[in-house]
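Anyone up for a design puzzle?
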C-alpha cells in the first residue's frame, strides 16, 4: 500500500521527467527521486538528453552513500540493457538501494526486465504507483514504442464556429498571443513539425521554436509532392533542420542542398503510414501536425492521430475554411469520438486536449 510519502516522491519524479521533454528522443523522459533509509530525500534527477546518463544515475550521484538502504522512485521501470549507457537496474543494485518503486513498466523489449533483475538481487520492487500520471507525461514515447510509428499530435486554432480563416483567406490572428506562445512549447516538445503543401503556399511558415529557453529545434517536415517550394521559403533557413517530402518523380534541381525524402504517390498523395515509417526510421518519435484541414483529414482517415489539441478563440466568422476537411467519414455512426483529457484557458482562448476513444 502506497504511503503519502511514496506518492509525494513519485509525483516529484514525474515533474522531473517533464524537464526532458523535447531533448531525450529517441529515448523516453524519466524522472527519479531517492530517499534514504529514514525516508528523507537525498537525490533526484531526470534523463536530460539521449546518450547521456539516465535519471537513476543522476539521482544516485546526488545521493552518494546515502542511497544505501533507501528507496528509489522512478517513473519508468529501470532499464535492463547496455546501450550508450549501462543498465540502471544494475546501478541501483550496486548502490545498495533496498527498495525500488516505479510507475510504468517498460514496453521496450530491448530494455524490459529491470524489475526481475532487481528482485533477483533481493531488492523490494513495487509497480504502478501513479501510473496514469506517468503515462500522460511520457505519452509520446510510450505510444511510439507500442505502435512502431511516431506519436502524432494534431494542433489547430479555430474560431468557436470551427473556422481557421475568414472567407477571403485572412487568418492572422484568430488565436491570441498567449496561444501562439503555447504552440511554441508544443513544438519544443516534438521531434518533428509537419505541414503540407497548402500551408506552405498560403502561410510560408517558419516552424522553428521561439521563446522557449534551451529548446532543441525540431525537424521541420514539409510535405510538397511536386516540389513547388521556392528556394526563398522561410522553412529553408538555418534556424532548424528541414526535410522536404516529395513524390518519386518530383524535380528538385531548384533546391540544391535541401534534405529530400522521395516517396511513391497514391492518387497523387503520399501515404500517411509510409511517411511515418520513414520518419520513425530517422529516429522521430513524436510529430506535431500543424498542416491544414486536408492533411489533418488524411491523418485522421488513416487512424494516425493520437492526440488533438485545439485552441478555440472567442470569435465567430460564419464562413471560411473549416479546421478539418474530408476524413473519410460519411455518416454519424462513423464519427471519431474523443475523450477530453484537459481544458485550459490560454489568455482569452480555450485549449482543449483530447484523445480518440479507446486509444
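Challenge accepted. My sequence:
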Amino acid at each position: 500500500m502506497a504511503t503519502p510519502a511514496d506518492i509525494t516522491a513519485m509525483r516529484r519524479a514525474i515533474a522531473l521527467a517533464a524537464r526532458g521533454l523535447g531533448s531525450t528522443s529517441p529515448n523516453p523522459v524519466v524522472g527519479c527521486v531517492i530517499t534514504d533509509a529514514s525516508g528523507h530525500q537525498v537525490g533526484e534527477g531526470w534523463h536530460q538528453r539521449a546518450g547521456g546518463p539516465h535519471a537513476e544515475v543522476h539521482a544516485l550521484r546526488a545521493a552518494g552513500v546515502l542511497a544505501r538502504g533507501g528507496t528509489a522512485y522512478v517513473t519508468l521501470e529501470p532499464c535492463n540493457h547496455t546501450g550508450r549507457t549501462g543498465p540502471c537496474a544494475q546501478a541501483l543494485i550496486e548502490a545498495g538501494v533496498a527498495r525500488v518503486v516505479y510507475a510504468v513498466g517498460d514496453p521496450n523489449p530491448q530494455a524490459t526486465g529491470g524489475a526481475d533483475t532487481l528482485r533477483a538481487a533481493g531488492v523490494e520492487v513495487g509497480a504502478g504507483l501513479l501510473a496514469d500520471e506517468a503515462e500522460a507525461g511520457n505519452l509520446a514515447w510510450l505510444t511510439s514504442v507500442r505502435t512502431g510509428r511516431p506519436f502524432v499530435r494534431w494542433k489547430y486554432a479555430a474560431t468557436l464556429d470551427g473556422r481557421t480563416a475568414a472567407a477571403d483567406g485572412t487568418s492572422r490572428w484568430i488565436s491570441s498571443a498567449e496561444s501562439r506562445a503555447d504552440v511554441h512549447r508544443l513544438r519544443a516538445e516534438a521531434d518533428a513539425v509537419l505541414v503540407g503543401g497548402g500551408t506552405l503556399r498560403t502561410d510560408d511558415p517558419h516552424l522553428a521554436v521561439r521563446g522557449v529557453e534551451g529548446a532543441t529545434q525540431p525537424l521541420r517536415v514539409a510535405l510538397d509532392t511536386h516540389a513547388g517550394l521556392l528556394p526563398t521559403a522561410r522553412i529553408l533557413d538555418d534556424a532548424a533542420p528541414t526535410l522536404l517530402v516529395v513524390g518519386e518523380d518530383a524535380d528538385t534541381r531548384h533546391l540544391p542542398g535541401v534534405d529530400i525524402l522521395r516517396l511513391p504517390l497514391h492518387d497523387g498523395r503520399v501515404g500517411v503510414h509510409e511517411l511515418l515509417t520513414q520518419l520513425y526510421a530517422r529516429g522521430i518519435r513524436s510529430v506535431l501536425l500543424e498542416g491544414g484541414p486536408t492533411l489533418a483529414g488524411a491523418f485522421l482517415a488513416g487512424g494516425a492521430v493520437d492526440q488533438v489539441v485545439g485552441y478555440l478563440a472567442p470569435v465567430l466568422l460564419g464562413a471560411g475554411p473549416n479546421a478539418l476537411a474530408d476524413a473519410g467519414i460519411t455518416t454519424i455512426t462513423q464519427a471519431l469520438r474523443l475523450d477530453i483529457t484537459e481544458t485550459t484557458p490560454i489568455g482569452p482562448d480555450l485549449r482543449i486536449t483530447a484523445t480518440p476513444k479507446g486509444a
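A detail worth pointing out: The two ends are 29 Å apart (CA to CA).
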